[in-house]
Amino acid sequence: MGDPNVIVHGVVPPRDILLQFISDNPDRASKREIAKAFGLKGDTRVELKDVLRDLEDEGLLQKSRKALMRPGGLPPRTVLDITTRSKDGELIARPAEWPDDGGVAPAVLIRQSSDNRSKSKTPAAGLGDRVLAKIFPNKDRSGPAYTARVVKIVDKHRNASLGVIRMMPEGGARLMPIDRRGEEMQISASDLGDAKDGDLIEADVLRGNRFGLTRAKVLSVVGSVASEKAISMIAIYSHGIPHIFPKQVLDEAEDAKHASMTKREDWRHVPLVTIDPADAKDHDDAVYAEPDPSPDNPDGIIVTVAIADVSYYVKTGSPLDREALQRGNSVYFPDRVVPMLPERISNNLCSLREGEDRPALAVRMVFSKDGKKAGHTFHRIMMKSAAKLSYQQAQAAIDGKPDDKSKPLLDPILKPLWHAYAIMKRGRDRRQPLELDMPERKILLKPDGTVDKVVIPERLDAHKLIEEMMIQANVAAAETLEKQRQPLIYRVHDAPSLAKQEILREFLAMLGIPMAKGGQVRANSFNGILAKAEDTPHQVMVNEMVLRSQSQAVYSPDNLGHFGLNLMKYAHFTSPIRRYADLIVHRALVRALGLGEGGLSPEEETQLDDIAAEISTFERRAMAAERETINRLIAHHLAERVGQEFEGRVSGVTKAGLFVTLPTYGADGFVPVSTLGSDYFVYDEARQALIGERHGLGYQLGDSVDVRLAEAIPLAGALRFEMLSEGQKMGVAMRSFHKSGRRGRSAPKRPGTRPPRRR
């Protein structure tokens, strides 16, 4: 291997030196910085781009925003949880969120600055803190893979823990952690309060002796661990989601006064309406549409989208602002919402309530009759919602079944909105965003918090109308800020990596569906694949695989475009009550357009990289918490049905076994490969299948199967199934893709084996 310290300027270095440089310099791993480091210009920059793309194709590099990194590595800036100390007393952290299929999260050694002359102010972090950190490779091979310098403390350790009480025969109790990284603690009888065996409790962590278990004291009893009402609290605590507003934040919210008309246009005469889920408590957005009277735009339309003016109430650096950034977004569970902002702000002052004056930022968009946007303008306004409608209510009125409330709105408001959507849809159809058919399931609870049923809500034109109008408003925000040369945070979605494209191509080849090789793939390329699979037995399977091939959308101050929506410029603008990214975009618009107070500060501009890294992490945190809660609820619901048989579908294939989804419940369970039979099963990655080596019978992604529920563990959200269906004839497994295999029933099983963690 070449010496990465030897840089020959003006010449593209060998691949091994490039890889070493990227590993050693994660903060300088963009194509521009690499070219600068090696003195590359002109044609050599093009050559560098080709070499880096080859390394991506081979899976030796992956893209993180505009930077490159080694697979499984950490980005240059990320959010860490400080979880423990090394034997030398140094702080050790791990990524706050890490994908289930990413293996063990890497350990990170927190650097403590010992140089008093250092100009950088490194915050003094401690055990239990959540921090934003700059990441460096650790050159000490005997220690963790990375070191980190703390940029700022995101959340101080609140000295509280969640766990399950286990009473001890000798008196007192143990607190059993609900987080696999948590520690067992000791609770004396005098510190138990009203807690009983099996209760899920919140505990105050006490200072203990140097040796033995840490001591704790019961603060509150959340409820019986057997209760569904405790399940969302487990996710809240295990992911460190702030859920209690500090007093100063609540005080600031209570002291807030209604917005004045200063530097606002009076739009209270415009009949804007909100269209939301029937149970919505806060209303971010309102819409209105009308014909364009301009003779230069025959049969054109004007669409107005008004968004709650949160930036007026949540000022940069205020307690409200700091708490909102710590949360990043609202988190939605079947039994509760953990809001980003206190109720006084989110459900009252900023919510676009029917018949009440409310401040808003509005965008007025003009479209030609063929759906092309001719222009747009932003306005800071005072509005008064003409009506609050549900999706079902608005759709029923359009379908000829208006109720007393929607009937008078049908001709003047609803029909023009649907006409506008028909025109905008022409533009959407021409743009051809990715059209995956992946229906969402919703858990409905009974009054006592137990699961009632799982439903797939009907996808109405009313949903699509609001979605398209919000997308266009988001595009308008990004375009305006770029034109004003105002820094912002984009919502970016990169194209699928070439490595993932190759896996998808090989899989589709097994089904006889061609996929072009090389070149710049576009969203409509995938739509063609989905169309070929429609109404075939492979439809669900192909949709799953196309989804898995996609990159993850993130927030970034660098614009990479949005691949899935097939848009060059895109920013989140339409939900500032529940997303911090949208609040940043609102502040940027206020500043760039001179719309009054509440604009983006110069200090915030310099922090956009850090803010984007934080809120991207918090978004993943919310998604994981929501998913785990649903898994636990379903596992709890099915815990008394162990031994029953269910119809399922293979939703995931690994060398360790099969994931099977029960469509009725939307729940995933695992079938260990060791229970599939006496054959030797080989994992065929191209086919996404496990295939018996001797008999050629196997199971493939998308297969319909019958399973028996063997075990349910509600706390872990885990289900384990036994396969009842015989495998299908699949021929010889393609071992070149993955040579790992597992024995079937002939292999001895370990007693007491728990179901594996969900993907």
TrEMBL record:
Gene name in the database record: rnr
Membrane-crossing residue ranges in chain numbering: none
GO MF terms held by the record: exoribonuclease II activity
Protein name: Ribonuclease R
Family membership noted in the UniProt record: Belongs to the RNR ribonuclease family. RNase R subfamily.
Organism: Rhizobium lemnae
Reactions that this protein is recorded to catalyse: Exonucleolytic cleavage in the 3'- to 5'-direction to yield nucleoside 5'-phosphates
Keyword annotations from UniProtKB, A to Z: Cytoplasm, Exonuclease, Hydrolase, Nuclease, RNA-binding
Residue ranges of every copy of the S1 motif domain listed in the record: 643-711
Signal peptide annotation: none
Catalytic activity, EC: 3.1.13.1
Pfam families, A to Z: RNB, S1
InterPro entries linked: NA-bd_OB-fold (IPR012340), RNase_II/R (IPR001900), RNase_II/R_CS (IPR022966), RNase_II/RNase_R (IPR004476), RNase_R (IPR011805), RNR_Ribonuclease (IPR050180), S1_domain (IPR003029)
